Amino acid sequence: MASKADFTPEEWSKVLFAPLNTSLMVALASPSGPIGMIQELYAAVSSVVEVEKDASAGEILRAVAADIKARQEKPELPRFSSVEEGKAHVAGLVREAVALLDAKAPDEAPAFKQWLYTVAQKAAGAAREGGFFGFGGTVVSEQEQAALSELAGLLGVAPGAVSAPPDTTA
What is the pTM of this model? Predict the structure, then answer.
């Protein structure tokens, strides 16, 4: 069974930021403004917190969740000259994280990759795209669905449907 100790600090950083990077792939596909971006990234962080409580989650997955939860400083996000450049960079980081998981934690890699896809799905479903002040629009834009399909291919998981966020207006 693999553990955090099996990774160098640089490698661990790539695995640690994989949930953020999968969510960024979706967010960059169809930017939904600052509020939508916050909702999408909050959904990703919430997924991380949930998995820390899951006793059936693998050691690597729980270690990532614990490290993200314990982090005090905000990650330094790189700047890009275009959205396309950002998407390509983030996809490359996801590829690197997946390769590390496959090489160093082959027993846990499939579940971890499925979880990464679930995190991205939750991010995609967190904010409505289009519409006006939250009315109308769609749960997941065509661009976000394309990003999820690309991500499924990168992760080697089956693409799935994204459900709408729970209605909290009542």
Answer: 0.80
